[in-house]
Amino acid sequence: MASAPADIKHPAKYQFGEFELTPAQGALWRNGERVPVMPKPMAALIVLVERAGQTVSKDELLASVWNGAAVEDNNVTQTISAIRKALGEKAGENRFIVTEPGSGYRFVAEISDAEPAALIRPEIPSPPRSPRWMLRKPAAGAVKRRSVAVLGMRDLSKDSAEAWLQTALPQMLTSELASGGKLHVIPVDDIAQWRAGLSKAADGGGNASLLRMARLNFGADAFVLGSYVVSGVCPDCRVRVDLTVFDAHSGENLASIIDEAPSRDMLDLATRLGAKLRGSLGAGAQPPQPSPFPAPSAMREYAEGLKSLQRIDPMAARDHLEAAAAADPGNPLIHSALADAWAALGYLSRAADESRRAYQLSPSLSRLDQLGIEARYRATAQQWDRAIEIYRDVFRLFPDSLEDGLNLAQAQYRAMKNADALSTLGVLRKLPKPAGGDPRIDLLEARIAGTQQDFAKTRDYAHRAAVEAKERGATYLFARARLLEGGAMQSMSDPNFEAVENEARKLCEQFGDRQCVSQAWRVRGNDQFSAGRLQEAQAAYLEGIRVARDLGDHSELANLTNGLGVVAESNLQWQQAEQNFSEAISLKKETGYNPSNEQMQLAQLYFRIGRFPDAARTADAAYSEAQKTGAREQIGEVFSLRAALARLEGRLDAAQQFGNQAIAEFRASQSTADLVLELALVSSISTARGDLPSAERNLAEAAKANQALRRLGVGFEADGTIARSHAELLLAQGQWQEAAEEGKHAAAEFSSVHLHEGSVEAFLIAARALEMSGRNSEALEACRQAEREGSQTADPLYALSVRLTLWRLSGGADPQEPPDLRSQVASLHNPELSLEEDLDRAVRAKRAGASDARRLFDDVATRAANTGYLTLARRARSLE
Question: Which of 236, 271, 288 marks a domain boundary?
Fold first, then answer.
């Protein structure tokens, strides 16, 4: 088959029947669901579709798909069979592919909507916003409504003193058009976001170009464009408004509307203009309703606040909206918008207060508007069942409304009802295009897949969303989808993830989306940290902090500060790490978010440096916070830490119980990585208790789950823990050689992620295994390596464990333990370390030929058995 010229671009997608083929992705979709197709059948399908209507010979398929490799003709036959199976084509049906005997194969299905390819670089979803004003009444039945969008207003005044009207007029006109529910009106926020992302050339290309791109993006039946002129000096000025209504399909001018009024009568002017617009669109007149708009004294500040929210400048939005609230404190719309500003700044509690205030004031609005504000209030208060009920009722009234459906799906997703969210998204996909192909549908499905750790699906849906966003000129959605795709690629160890994330960050910077920029720097920092590049990770977090502080986003600031703490801990900067974690906790509390994750980071730091009372206290605080919101992952982490503390106190039964509780919480939260770690840690406890079958079962489950994570490109943190627990189990089973090798392997894994405490423990296990097999010189070398790793820790337990092992392994017949070593061990009050000390003393006594050596072994074995350390008791008996 002759290859296509290099300068010809393949279409971004082909559509035939219920299928959609995207060659760039190598993906086949059926009604929005991806159809699994193996690489060779996919490559062959692309060849056939690209040459639809032509017969493609077997030789041509072999050359294109197998690159001329020597394969049997039967391979082609099996590949075609696999394609037919993927397409659901039955034998002899020939709906898609016809076999031409002796010639080859021909794709016969009609292909439609083949669209030119764009340079595709995917992004991250933002939650769908409710319209600021939802002035409409339930439509009778599920009748398809005519859709309209107000695309913008030009200010033709001589100066820009009244530029705020560019924001206020579209808001008011959109609200007036929506009144009565007979028209489906595109939300102003969606239009403002889309226009902000258009290139200057695209946005300034004249009405025809703008209408063409708007039709592709919104699919409305009609568009409104307008201008206004302010004459005189305000507040005694007059405002003249010129509006033109365009047919979205033909571009024909449907109506021209002109009206004017004194600026103090802007609400009356908007009402008259709205009535004329509805009349031109066949929506008819509506009975008069009380205006929901702020008082004239507050209108300018309110409009400026909305404009700042559209520009993603929540700090400026807050200031304007607070001024508006001071001028008109009883207006619910002002308080609802102010809730959005506080939420964007990361102050969840203040957002909840303003949302509650808007809800309390909403009886002044129409019933449907009251429901819209209540739904947002319930969502802010995390009263998901009521929020979902409202959004579902509204969507039933307006089943043609993409925005209402997205609100419902978003609430279901945030309530962790993913199956319901996916069902709602399935309904939205069936809406007529372009609504049914809106990139936000794929973005939300990508996020849902991410919560299920299905990173391949996250990547594919984010990529698909980016393709659609790019084609629509929706730069904002494109940039955020690209960031989401890059994160999924990083989780899958795709080496191209860094370029994708960098591009997303640059797009966010160009677009002016500083929230996206700060998040992108955090993602970058996480990536660098995972790769062990601590300096680069710190630099990325600091860049993100700079942006978040400038933006005033304290919630994101908490996330970034927590990242700095993790870096500081890895650099063994204990005091700096404590300071970072404490600051992150304060920021989370200040903004009203749950601080349990940051509290557990601090608790684990305290545990790591031997401040066990502080670790217990901080973990209890985290437990209290996590219970408020049912954060089961953090609850599991608390139980895990309690298990570790109980083991330090020699309470193995309690440690086992806490560990099992942690496992149950991690299973419930579907936190596979945490589950893997806890299974390995509980296996270690079972080994110490002498319950080797349980230890083996838990370890096998941990290893299997970790392999699954590894295939997804994650799970490296558990490698050392699993290997250490396995080495302990092998040692308990008397497999000395295997235990020594596994211990060294575990030490290397721990060292690679800067967990020096684990490395010390692993080297000491290897040293004991080597000693048991009579290889004392190698055991001493392993102990010296443990000593070097121990110098990087702050907990004296590890240094003392190394000193005891060195004393046991060192030459000499003196059974007497150095007095300072004995006093230091006693000062820790660690039962397991004390037992090991007594066993070491017995070993030295036996080596010296002391008469009481047998009694010492017997005492250790008895005491170990009585306190639950059966494996240590067995070891003492074997050495006796």
Answer: 288
Q: What is the pLDDT of residue 662?
A: 94
Name the residue range of residue 850's domain. 811-880
Q: What is the CATH number of the domain that holds 106?
A: 1.10.10.10
Of the candidates 85, 116, 147, which is a domain's last residue? Answer: 116
In a domain, 157, yes or no: yes
- Using alpha carbons, list the distances in angstroms from residue 796 to 609, 760, 803, 836: 8, 12, 11, 16
DSSP 234: T
* Residues sharing a CB contact under 8 Å with residue 409, sequence separation 6 or more, in sequence order: 421, 424, 425, 428, 444
The token pair that represents 366 in the structure block: 């129409």
Residues 141 and 272 occupy one common structural domain: yes
Low-confidence ranges of the chain (pLDDT < 50): 1-10, 114-143, 201, 715
**Would you state the structure tokens that stand for residue 534, as one six-digit string?**
């601590």
Q: How many domains does the chain have?
A: 3
- Is the peptide bond prior to 693 cis by the omega test (within 30 degrees of 0)? no
Contact between 202 and 419 under an 8 Å Cβ cutoff? The reply is no
* 89 lies in the same domain as 151: no
CA dihedral 723, 725, 726, 729 (to 10 degrees): 160
Helix axis angle for 870-879 and 853-866, nearest 10°, is: 160
CA distances for 146 relative to 140, 179, 181, angstroms: 14, 13, 10
Token code pair at residue 121: 């670089």
Compute the Cα dihedral for 429, 431, 437, 438 and give only its sign. negative
Element (H, E) at 741: helix 736-752
What is d(CA 458, CA 466) in angstroms, rounded to the nearest whole number?
12
Strand order in the sheet with 11-16: 33-35, 27-30, 19-22, 11-16, 112-116
Q: Is the domain of 167 the same as that of 263?
A: yes
Under a CB-based contact definition with an 8 Å cutoff, are residues 607 and 621 in contact? no
Is there a single domain that holds both residue 37 and residue 75? Answer: yes
Instruction: Read off the pLDDT of residues 282-338 as tens digits, 9 standing for 90 and up.
Output: 887 665 566 688 888 888 888 888 888 877 777 788 899 999 999 999 999 999 999
Sheet strand arrangement including 97-100: 55-56, 104-107, 97-100
CA distance 126 to 735: 55
Alpha-carbon distance of 858 to 852, in angstroms, equals: 10
In terms of domains, do 18 and 103 share one? yes
Residue 224 lies in a domain: yes
Q: What is the pLDDT of residue 812?
A: 64
Least Cα distance to 379 among 126, 130, 171, 189 occurs for 130
